[in-house]
């Protein structure tokens, strides 16, 4: 039987780590456990990753790259309704559905993992710019930068309450109502541009 290629081994390691992270914190998982779950030796794991931090970096990149590529692909699909309200609904639903991995990123960042914190902040800015661009293509009735950050902040709040199992909040219904507000927003007449003094 042929040995797995280098890329395949890294994928095995990341998949194993993600599986373990479904029920435990990264700090409670050893590299030996990750290697055992991946079906490889500890030495093979060390060849690819020297620390759990490096594994978390790659999981973070994998997760965020998937979200980025899926959003771009969805908004550029001419066969789909990607109007403003649908865009808002898509982003919120997608963010809330990936709650488990996001908790690990936030947890490590809040515990002082500076590299993860900076990576998350960089990606937040990148996603805010991407979403703002998509909003601007669909309406002139709102500040696209403001609305993009509002969507990202809403998604964070919703995933926290979903994690808390807040019975007072129906997440799906809330997302539907938010999308409806976005639809109504698109129907409003845009505010006139502010003129500079002396004009």
From TrEMBL:
Residues 7-67 form the HTH tetR-type domain. Residues 30-49 bind DNA. InterPro entries: Homeodomain-like_sf (IPR009057), HTH-type_Tx_Regulator (IPR050624), HTH_TetR (IPR001647). Coiled coil: none annotated. It holds the Pfam family TetR_N. One of its GO terms (molecular function) is DNA binding. Keywords: DNA-binding. This is TetR/AcrR family transcriptional regulator. It comes from Eisenbergiella massiliensis.
